[in-house]
Every structure is written in structure tokens, then in C-alpha cells.
Amino acid sequence: MHPIRGTVQPYAWGMIGSSSLVAQLASKFSSIVSTQPYAEYWMGTHPKGESYLLDNNNQSSLKSYLNHDLPFLFKVLSVETALSIQAHPNKEHAKLLHQQNPKEYPDDNHKPEMAIALTKFECLCAFRPYEEINKFIQAYQQLQVLCGQKNCEEFSQSISSHANISIQESLLKKLYSNLMQSSPTLISQCVDEHLQAIQIDTTNELSHLFQRLNKQYSGGDVGLFSIYFFNYMTLNPGEAILLKANIPHAYLHGECIECMACSDNVVRAGLTPKFKDIPTLIDMLDYQPLTIEQTKFPGKKISENILEFDPRQISSIDDFIVQEIQGKTGVINAIDQPSLVIIVQGQGVMNEGKIKFQEAQVFLIDKQTSIDFQSDSNFLAYRAYSPL
Fold first, then answer.
1. Number of helices followed by number of strands (H, E) in the chain
2. pTM of the predicted model as reported, rounded to 2 decimal places
3. Which of 5, 128, 268, 383 is labelled catalytic?
4. Quick check: 80 and 14 in contact, CB under 8 A?
């Protein structure tokens, strides 16, 4: 078992200063800058943020110790302001995007990902049930202007006539395409008009969200209107979502554990100052409607202490598995692959008292190694590994 130092990513949307878990992780190795955002903490072998073993005051890269790359990237996110409206490509599409634009798509791998909430965690995820989208379109003239009046009428008609789902899906794609490719002038005008329209709606959570996001991304960001198309949800600590290829999403606020295939490919289209590839996003998105409950990914209890989130239960994703480990005493079971574990809560001893641990520490567990733990308080850790 080896202590690990990860890499901080100071993206602008991160929580500022020392309050976040990312900052607590960073503080083990450097002083915290009170004005700096601490957005992500990367654990793995990705070249943009490789981890290092810290054995007996010696540092060696995780990749050189393992003699291979990990197929997954393990992260902690501390989100203060919204991340972009985005989706991630499948393997075939990732290769094409990397070939066409290696600057913006720096590798050729897919990036399915899982997020597990550590705090209350707000996000947008997947297209809402079509009936909900239709109600918003009928309620707000600004959506009709941006999506196109004729497109809105055709979509509403398909809902009321219970048309085939493939027809509704095609019409929704036209709506969303029209919205996202509207002129900046028209978008800015509709944002201003919509802010006026929702001023009197003081109890509506989406009205409050629109106003809040507009303060973060002022000047007429087209991504603001996506809140009427995607599920808006707040995950409770321990709840998870699994984001397969092409599922639209945006993280809005809170802290989470995240695990994904080892890639940094992101197709963005709103709520960001970064590169936007709106045509690509529109073409690749999965327009299937999902309810909030359908977007959640429940774990499976495999022992008294361990809740396991294995994407293979509901998909072909086999790049990673994440385990949630709790309790004052217990055992982290041995597996045939190396794994990374992050201590979120608790302090005590592991490995028959040989290793002391505390909150905000990361360890590598060698393959075929079981680890016992005893904690002075309630222990919470997350472990990531590849099943292959």
C-alpha cells in the first residue's frame, strides 16, 4: 500500500481557497492560495495530470511503478459555478475527432464517466421526458422564438398525437439544433426577455436556476435555455449517475467523486468560455428521454462495508468500477488489479496498524492485496479499479 500524490486542476469553475475537498487534498503537498480555484484532483496516469508514489520520501510516477497506464482516471470535483453543457464521444467518434482536430480533442479514447455525490450535488443530465419539454415550450415565448415556431408546433403535435418515439426524437433534434445555432444577437435578446418573464415566478426552481446561471455566464449564453430540455436534479450524498457516450450533461454545484475512461475528450456547447463545437454536439447527442430516476445509477452491496458501482450491470462500459467503503472497522477485499483509494472521512490505521491514515489521503493498493482498517470515527472512502 503506497501513499499517492495527485494533480490539482485549477479550472475557473472550481471552489475558491481552502474550503473544498480538492483544496484539502492539495494542502498535503503545497500551501493553499486563498484566491485560487481548486476544481479537480486527478488520480491516475493521464499525461495531463499524472500521479506519483511517495514511498520513504522518494517520488516515482505511478505509471513507471505499474509499468503501464491505468485505463481509468479517478477524480474529485469541487464545483462552485456551472461546468459546460457537454457530452463525450464513443470510441469510434473519438478517433475521428482526434484525427480532425487534435488540439481540441487531445486523445482518441472514449470517456464514459460516473459521478457519485459527496455533498448535495446539482446537475443537468439527459433529455427530459418529452411531455415536460413540450410544456416549457408552450409556456415560454422565448423558447418558441429560438427553436422556431413551426418546429415547436410540429413537436407539440407529435406529443398530443402520441406519434412514434423516433418521430418525436427527430423533431426534438430539430428544436434543439435551432436553439443552439441561433444568432448571438437573438440569444441575448431572448435571455433578457426571459429574465423579465420569470421575475414574477418566485417559487419556480428553474426560474431561480436560470437567474443564477445568467449571473455566472452573462451576456447571452445559449446554454442557459438547456435547463428546459435536460433533467435538473440534486443528488444526495452517495447517489450516482452514469454518463454513457453522447448523454448531455452539466455539473452545476457541489462536490463529487468521478471516475471515467482515461481521456480528456469533451464536446462543449454552452455555459463555457472554452472552445464550443455546437454542430458536433448536436449531431452526436442521445435524444432519448429519461426521467430523473432513470438517470440515477444505484450501487450494489457486496459486503457489510462495500457498496459497488459496476457500469457493466447496465452497459458495455468496462473501463472502471468504483466501490464506496464505510464503517468503523472492516476489510477492503483483494482484487486482481491495482486500485486507487481516497479517504474522504475518518482517521485511523490500516494494514494491521502499519499505516496511519486521515481524511484527504490517497493510496495505491497493489493487486491481490487485502487491507483491513480501523477508524476513530465513521470511515468513508472510495476505491477505483479496472475489471479487466
1. 11, 23
2. 0.96
3. 268
4. yes
